[in-house]
Amino acid sequence: MRVPSIPAADFLPLVPAIILLVGACVLLMTEVFLRSPSRGYQAPLSLFFTGLAGAVSLSSAFEPARPVFQGFAAQDPFSSAVTLVVCVALGLAVLTSSGFLRSRNAERGEFYALMLFAASGMSLLAMSTELITLFINIEVLSVGTYALTSYLRRGTRPAEAGFKYFILGAFSSAILLYGAALLYGATGSTKLSEMAVVLPAALAAQPALVYAGALLVAGGFAFKVAAVPFHMWTPDVYEGAPTPVTALMSAGVKAAAFAAMIRVFLVLGKGMDPSVPLALFSGLAYLTMIVGNLLALPQRNVKRMLAYSSIGHAGYLLVGVAALFVTAEAPAGDGFRFFGATPLLAPGLSEVAARADALKGLLFYLLAYTVTTVGSFGVLAALERSEDEPKGTAWDLDRFAGLAQRRPGWAFAMAVFMLSLGGVPPTVGFMGKLLIFRSAVDTGLVGLAVVGVLTSAAAIYYYLRVVVAMYMRPAPEDERIPVTLSWGTELALALSALAVVVLGILPGTVTDWLQQASTLWLGQ
Amino acid sequence: MVPTSNYLLLAAALFCMGMLGVLVRRNALVVFMCVELMLNASNLTFLAFARHRGDMTGHISAFFVIAVAAAEAAIGLAIVIAVFRSRGTLNVDDIRTMRH
After folding, report:
1. For B53, nearest residue in chain A (alpha carbons)
2. Does the model's ipTM exceed the 0.85 cut?
3. Is the dihedral of CA B71, B44, A68, A524 positive or negative?
4. Is A61 in contact with A31 (CB distance < 8 Å)?
5. pLDDT tens per residue across span A96-153
């Protein structure tokens, strides 16, 4: 019997995930063995492990791309960049959690431990290159977030949100798994690199099996990234979950799911006609941008509005994903014309360069969206009062009225986040949209770029409504400012507002770095 | 020997039944069982293809999926209990506080 030998160097890429796992176990153990009623040490302890994991992934970010564990995972700058984004989201979410949990008297170690477990799943998902590994990591991150969603289980909303998230999450995982099983049947392997090699032959023999499998896998991923028409769960789950958890879900889960989706379809796309993924992701992007932004327009509940806005932002990311599949030669036949423009690379742009540009845009957008959305959910977490939750008015637009007089710092931070989500310069949201739409135009996806710009313009309306409420409406007489001030929330808001402005004005260093991070290991 | 296609058809039928059940049935526990049915349909597909090809990957995948399904059942049942405690019903039509 042949025993596979695994060199020690293969474990190096796993170090960030291992640090997060160790941190989670340490937090669980402190809950068991430390008798002190004070839980103040838990947030700093989780921050320490998060920072350590982020630093390790940053230090390994420039290593050359290579497969590890015989092709079950890959160490490449792309996965390191995604792990870093996840750690940023996790760190900011942990900072906002400490005050949030203390004001609800729910500060227990398992909350942070679950967050770290989920984040380790996200980190591993970004580097999985085998379908079963991928499925297991999706489940690791999902099981953690299911538990976090219904963490405040006494209330009706968290239990309901957890239930909806669990049923639809498990449903989408099952769809993805069935797709993986069909692809395994067609190609005889579950490793992406081996599948890419046999895919042309498998397509010739059993095209229906391959396309059915790929479509089911795409459907499973579309659920996870909340793309229309698979978005129905998002508003309810985002509204019902504890606000710091919503922040982690909208940033970290989205980043990891996009990373896995990009990796799977870049490899599968090598074996099949690239116009199929192109048409698939363009269609999803159109629907997601339009429907997400339109549904956000009438929302007066700011948390729900941010949930719909998160769907809209998934649409902009899908534009970048579609741009990955444009090829140098015109596709056979003219079946895929978008608004009169054929998807074709701009003259003088090679396929590799266009793909690297699109990946750089995607990574930058994920980072930009992470700091902005976690910050805005942080303001929500600081403002909401637990006694309003059963009535459902905890996140009403009226709660923001006159915030500029009562809490000028929070109001300014929230205004910065809203402008960034709307894509107004000089914020990071504008730079992200610029990079994504530029790579769409460079690849000839003009229709997608036009719809993207139009929907962003419409989105400004509902983002600015929050700013108007904060700065131009008087505060209601009986309004009580939440008294639970916490250093964590203040620090998280300051850090994310700073990141939004600084990255918006000086994106150079980060984009240069992400330019190098846009290499993926895709097999031989 | 039973041909592989029969197993695949059975798995596809189970998968469709599970999917329909998730969309149609109203009891939360039955919906949860339908999700499990979908996972097991995928398992059967993996096993049928593995036997057809004489390849061990599919067999091992099925074991991992069973383990994952067990973890999912643990968290899922906990959530179902939380829902039942907070509102005393398991009818998914009644689980809709958040509507706008």
Report:
1. A188
2. yes
3. negative
4. no
5. 998 888 888 888 888 999 999 999 999 999 999 999 999 999 999 999 999 999 998 7
70-89 in B: which are within 8 Å (CB) of A?
71-72, 75-76, 78-80, 82-83, 85-87
Q: What string of DSSP letters covers chain B?
A: ---HHHHHHHHHHHHHHHHHHHHH--BHHHHHHHHHHHHHHHHHHHHHHHHHHT-SHHHHHHHHHHHHHHHHHHHHHHHHHHHHHHHS--BTTT------
Residue B41: give the domain boundaries: 4-87
Is B80 a domain residue? Answer: yes
Residue B94 lies inside a defined structural domain of this protein: no
- DSSP one-letter string for A49-111: HHHHHHHHHHHTTTSPPEEEGGGTEEE-HHHHHHHHHHHHHHHHHHHHHHHHHHHTT---HHH
Residues 6 or more apart whose Cβ sits within 8 Å of residue B74: none
B28 touches chain A (CB under 8 A): yes
Question: Other C-beta atoms within 10 Å of B56: how many?
Answer: 9
3-state secondary structure of A425: coil
Assigned domain for B95 exists: no
The C-alpha of A429 sits at a distance from chain B's nearest C-alpha, in angstroms, of 28
Which residue of A lies nearest to B48 if distances are taken between CA atoms? A185
Phi, psi of A73 (to 5 degrees): -145, 170
Q: Distance (Å, rounded) from C-alpha A502 to C-alpha A212? A: 45
Cβ of A155 and B86 within 8 Å? Answer: yes
Specify the DSSP class assigned to residue A395. Answer: T
CATH code for the domain of B55: 1.10.287.3510
Number of domains in chain B: 1
Query: pLDDT, tens digit, for every residue of A255-265?
Result: 999 999 999 99
Token pair for A396: 């009403």
Contact A100, A482 (CB under 8 A): no
B32 assigned to some structural domain: yes
